[in-house]
Amino acid sequence: MTCEIFRVKVKDQRSSTRLTAIRVATDTEQIGEEVGTSLRGQRDQLIRTRDRLQDADVELTRAGRLISAIRYNVISNKMFLIFIIIIECAILIALCYLKFIR
Predict the structure, then answer these.
(1) Which residues cross the membrane (predicted)?
(2) Tell me, what's the pLDDT at 18?
């Protein structure tokens, strides 16, 4: 009888161990699915962020070209104004020379 009880206890322990292993495997699988879902969501978010950054980079490049064009126009306008001022000064000097010295 004691051998029979021992065998039953061993079978119960094996069954219990199997059930525990099945529970652990099920829990692990569920956790794995949750992690996979979370990682897919994070991947999608990273892809959207990358796309937005690429769009921002394109816009910054375009803005940089626009600023360079504006800078070129400002410099050329200043040079033109300096040239006009020099011509006006030359005309003024010529008029003073003609009026007062002659």
Answers:
(1) 80-100
(2) 77
Residues 49, 85: Cα–Cα separation, whole Å: 53
Distance CA 78, CA 27 (A): 75
CA distances from 14 to 7, 10, 26, 34, 73 (A): 10, 6, 18, 30, 87
In whole angstroms, give the CA distance from residue 72 to residue 91. 29
Write down the residue that tokens 């803005």 correspond to. 63
Spans in the chain with pLDDT lower than 50: none
Which secondary-structure segment (H or E) carries 34? helix 2-96
**pTM for the structure as a whole:** 0.57
Distance, CA of 92 to CA of 84 (rounded, Å)? 12
**Cβ count within 10 A of residue 14:** 10
